[in-house]
Amino acid sequence: MPQGRVKRCAGLLAPLLLAACTVIPPASGPRPLPPARPGGPAVAPPAVTPPPPPNAVALGVAPGPDLATLPLAGLRPAAALRTFQESCRALLVRTDQSGLTRPDDWRPACSAAATWPAADAAGFFVTWFEAARVSDGRSYVTGYYEPEIAGTRTAQPGFAVPVYRLPPDLVRAWPFETPFEQRVGQPPLGRFDPTGRFVPYYDRGQIEDGALAGQGLEIGWAADPAELFFLQVQGSGRLIGPDGTVIRIGFAGQNGHPYTGIGAVLRDRGLIGTGPGQYPGSMQGIMAYIREHPEDGKALMRLNRSYVFFREVTGDGPVGALNVPIRAQTSLAADPLMVPLGAPVLLSEGDRPEINGLWVAQDTGGAIKGANRFDSFWGAGPTARVIAGGMAARGNALIFLPKGTLARLAGTAPAVPAPRRK
């Protein structure tokens, strides 16, 4: 929720779904060449190139309405303009995986944004952008927030749950027994055991039982394991000490085990719903179950073997995938194959009215995949927690692209920047 999440996991707290996280690099070693036949020379098999995943261009992009016809003035344009300004330093150098834009396409709008008056923010978007609809434009939006949980920098009575930084023995490599022809894409995450064998990394239960204890990996210590669990789902947050000290932490990596949404587990067990004895399908409902059933709740959380590691971060907000701060009620997590990260996005006709407005795609998330799938950021504090914890909105989405982009994609004209505002 991405460097941060908030490289997040785009921490999704929609009913019954919780986000998975993406991870960090390290590399694999050289691979031995198998013999062509018994006694023959070693010959490398043909290279296997997986097909590229579909992006926005492959799915289809259509022009949206003329922005001058939309009521942008009432859709938080000033906040979106400020957030777009902060995104420009990444937009101008980042490769757009969606296939929609090139870095230079954004240069005129970014130059203008630097001095554009906030009072005419709606005019900025009308002047420099055109609307595009990816696929059918029908959006599904969940929510995430920056949790604030009780925590301290050192272990002390009442604060005994470790918050770990990335372990140095967490690496990517191919297990020796993996056939050469299956070594396609990124190697898995794991560790080398004392015998030199590459094995999966410790899972949540093993880590909670002390697999990493005594290695000096603790950034801090939390008071409540359930609160830390949900902070891991979000991918970033704040540890608040009894004296008011704040330690801001962000996503650094994940242990390589698949993510299991515990809300879905409760649903499958018939414990989520609206009937007698059932819990609401929101973060609050899941937390209530854990509180009321401590032992079963602990076992439930351990079903999610994925474990998130953190780094300490500084600045005035959690950092998203563009390595710039994300902003409450303005920043979205999106699939970078479908939306240029840094692009403005207009969400409208949502069945949750608070979702309607101008946003900027600045983050990613493991569960935020596909066209018009977004995760909305709501900031920190109790109100943000409630909104994000129950957010699940359907509506429509328009991506704002630099003027001339659609003509270039259609092959009817080169990209032509809008005229400079005098």
TrEMBL record:
<dbReference type="GO" id="GO:0009254">
    <property type="term" value="P:peptidoglycan turnover"/>
</dbReference>
<feature type="domain" description="Lytic transglycosylase MltA">
    <location>
        <begin position="148"/>
        <end position="311"/>
    </location>
</feature>
<keyword id="KW-0961">Cell wall biogenesis/degradation</keyword>
<keyword id="KW-0456">Lyase</keyword>
<dbReference type="Pfam" id="PF06725">
    <property type="entry name" value="3D"/>
</dbReference>
<dbReference type="GO" id="GO:0009253">
    <property type="term" value="P:peptidoglycan catabolic process"/>
</dbReference>
<dbReference type="InterPro" id="IPR005300">
    <property type="entry name" value="MltA_B"/>
</dbReference>
<dbReference type="Pfam" id="PF03562">
    <property type="entry name" value="MltA"/>
</dbReference>
<protein>
    <recommendedName>
        <fullName>peptidoglycan lytic exotransglycosylase</fullName>
        <ecNumber>4.2.2.n1</ecNumber>
    </recommendedName>
</protein>
<dbReference type="InterPro" id="IPR026044">
    <property type="entry name" value="MltA"/>
</dbReference>
<dbReference type="InterPro" id="IPR010611">
    <property type="entry name" value="3D_dom"/>
</dbReference>
<feature type="signal peptide">
    <location>
        <begin position="1"/>
        <end position="19"/>
    </location>
</feature>
<dbReference type="GO" id="GO:0004553">
    <property type="term" value="F:hydrolase activity, hydrolyzing O-glycosyl compounds"/>
</dbReference>
<dbReference type="GO" id="GO:0008933">
    <property type="term" value="F:peptidoglycan lytic transglycosylase activity"/>
</dbReference>
<dbReference type="GO" id="GO:0071555">
    <property type="term" value="P:cell wall organization"/>
</dbReference>
<dbReference type="InterPro" id="IPR036908">
    <property type="entry name" value="RlpA-like_sf"/>
</dbReference>
<dbReference type="GO" id="GO:0019867">
    <property type="term" value="C:outer membrane"/>
</dbReference>
<keyword id="KW-0732">Signal</keyword>
